[in-house]
Amino acid sequence: MIDRYGPWAVVAGGSEGVGAAFAHRLADAGLNLVLIARRPGPLAETADAVRAKGMQVRTLELDLVSPDALARVRAVTDGLEVGLLVFNAGANSYRHEFVTGDLDGFQGVIDLNITAQLALTRHFGAPMKERGRGGILLVGSLAGFMGQARISVYAAVKAFGRIFAEGLWLEMREHGVDVLELVLGVTRTPAMERAGLDMDIPGLLVADPDDVAREGLDHLADGPVWVAGGNYETARQRAGFPRAELVADAHALMRRMLPKN
Ligand SMILES: NC(=O)c1ccc[n+]([C@@H]2O[C@H](COP(=O)([O-])OP(=O)(O)OC[C@H]3O[C@@H](n4cnc5c(N)ncnc54)[C@H](OP(=O)(O)O)[C@@H]3O)[C@@H](O)[C@H]2O)c1
Questions:
Q1: Stated pTM of the model
Q2: Which atom of ligand 1 is nearest the CA belonging to 186?
Q3: Which residues, including other chains, have CB under 8 Å from residue 185's CB and lie 6 or more apart?
Q4: Domain spanning 1-257 has what CATH number?
């Protein structure tokens, strides 16, 4: 892992949940880390735990949607050889019916999942191409396989990420850079707990952050898309036709899972 993706990895959204799990697994593999997140508490906690494994860690308290995000990332990473970018931050931050919703709220979802993701991917991807090695792991969602009410923009940006990853994979594979869209289903992260999602619906497959992070890193070279947590068949079905039937059926489950407000 270190020869192919080291010596430094950047985890955007690396303080808790799947992001913290990535940090631990990468440190176990001998990579130094730059961890980015907004809240200082969980960021420091994960950084300390990873330092205790003997790796170097830099932290950056940053909202990735802020206009100076790339400049601030550069201030912490310029001069480091970053061989792996994990763009994990991206859970839905605004949930509403579209036409009566707040456009700024939807814009925040787009800014994080599209604008910030593209900026960091381009910034770290170019030197990886020059070096002829590296990895880019973008965290996606089963939501990106079909439209969903009240999270229509979130589902759409996750579809964007997946299609973008496929094109990037084509461009980078001949330069020795692995690109993977890691598609997650429902995963028991602190963000999901805070959002009040009902993850205890009978029959619902709920993954553990450590398991999906490990699965993603194990399959970094199996791009462009890897569906984690046993959700491959669900993803395959959701990508099919006829759309009206599939979208309406999935909507019935989502209505039970999402909070009513
Ligand atoms: N959990 C699920 O059920 C599920 C299902 C499908 C896909 N996913 C995908 O998995 C990824 C991780 O999701 P998650 O549930 O762990 O929630 P998340 O809100 O994306 O949080 C993950 C990490 O990103 C950081 N973060 C979030 N927004 C940020 C921002 N604007 N700027 C900088 N850092 C930010 C968080 O710390 P701070 O909050 O302190 O910034 C945390 O360290 C996302 O891409 C999500 O779409 C999750």
A1: 0.98
A2: 3
A3: 141, 142, 205, 206, 207, 227, 228, 229, 230, 231, 234
A4: 3.40.50.720
